[in-house]
Write a structure and sequence with these properties.
There is one protein chain. The protein has 349 residues and is α+β, with helices and mostly antiparallel strands. It has 2 domains: 212 residues, Endonuclease III, domain 1; 118 residues, Nucleoside Triphosphate Pyrophosphohydrolase. Helix 1 packs across helix 11.
């Protein structure tokens, strides 16, 4: 029994019962694949259900406001995925007249769709013979064939894609692709793979050479950047506050409290000396108190954000018109969302 047949046989007996596995609707498969980028299946499933309930078709998604989509996406992170999803839905409806792309070359033109997603949708929905390569596939192929080429290099990406394409069962492309991904997720796991019960264990190079934990290989990780955020959480006498829409960066178009970014951690005295702080409070008396006793460290893939939330109470000011009761209606980052859940005041809920 060859490599593909063994994987498919294992898959048909062991696959998880996931909601997007019961359909070949390209909108639903595309949606699930975008959600599952950088997201665990158990977390992503909840969001998949929410999106299907609120936007059952690509047209419904296209007609939604970006704010609605970002609010529904809240907590998933990597918000550019949601913005690209919305952009592509509008593109499909307006430029393709509602006709979902069917081929790899058409799918990859969608904003936010790369080689993996285009291959997944094309093969699962339309049985196009194009192999998927994701983290699970890299791991299975690297271990089984004993490949030491780093997966995050141009050479590695090309080598693994070519190998995956050679191994593909072209008559059952969608099933083959789902099988190898599921095998990597459940059997050939990053840590503690189940080698003893693996149907491929008699021919796995990494297992025979006792190098399972060494593969796949990745080149050195990028340097993590440290950033220091000071959020100014305003409470006015009439229960209003100030939030602003972020215009750029990872949290573009999400809302947040006025932000003062500094080069290092600062104390209250240093905060009050900041020009941005004084611009916020040109008149009136204020009181300042640090909400979190210890710095909140929010870790992202490329940066760690060290955050302090400063509670500032002040008089009624015309610039601050967002009532505290409405704050949670706005789409915000996980960092702000977690703060709001902790910050219990009688203005909320």
């Amino acid at each position: 029994m060859n490599f593909s047949n063994q994987l498919i046989s294992w898959y048909l007996q062991n696959k998880r019962n996931l909601p997007w596995r019961s359909t070949i609707n390209p909108y639903k498969i595309w949606l699930s694949e975008i959600i599952l980028q950088q997201t665990r299946v158990d977390q992503g499933t909840e969001y998949y259900y929410k999106f299907i309930e609120n936007f059952p078709t690509v047209n419904d998604l296209a007609l939604a406001s970006e704010e609605q989509i970002l609010k529904l996406w809240q907590g998933l992170g990597y918000y550019s995925r949601a913005r690209n999803l919305h952009f592509s839905a509008k593109y499909i409806m307006n430029e393709l007249y509602g006709e979902f792309p069917k081929t790899y070359n058409e799918l990859i033109k969608l904003k936010g769709v790369g080689d993996y997603t285009a291959s997944a949708v094309a093969s699962i929905c339309f049985n196009k013979a194009t192999a998927v390569v994701d983290g699970n596939v890299y791991r299975v192929l690297a271990r089984y064939f004993g490949i030491h080429t780093p997966t995050n290099t141009t050479k590695g990406i090309k080598e693994f894609k070519q190998l995956a394409q050679q191994l593909l069962d072209t008559k059952n492309s969608g099933t083959h692709n789902q099988a190898i991904m599921e095998f990597g997720a459940l059997m050939c796991k990053p840590k503690n793979p189940i080698c003893s019960n693996c149907p491929l264990n008699d021919s796995c190079v990494a297992l025979s050479e006792k190098r399972v934990n060494e593969l796949p290989v990745k080149e050195n990780k990028i340097k993590i950047k440290k950033r220091y955020f000071n959020y100014i959480v305003i409470e006015t006498e009439d229960n209003n506050t100030k939030i602003v829409k972020r215009e750029k960066g990872i949290w573009k178009n999400l809302y947040e409290f006025p932000l003062i970014e500094t080069e290092s951690l600062i104390d209250e005295k240093q905060l009050i000396e900041q020009q941005e702080f004084n611009t916020l409070f040109k008149t009136g008396n204020i009181t300042v108190k640090l909400f979190n006793d210890s710095v909140v460290i929010h870790k992202l893939s490329h940066q760690h954000i060290y955050t302090k939330f400063w509670i500032v109470k002040t008089q009624i000011l015309t610039d601050y018109t967002v009532h505290w009761k409405t704050v949670k209606k706005y789409p915000v980052s996980t960092l702000i969302h977690n703060f709001l859940n902790q910050y219990k005041t009688n203005y909320f809920f």
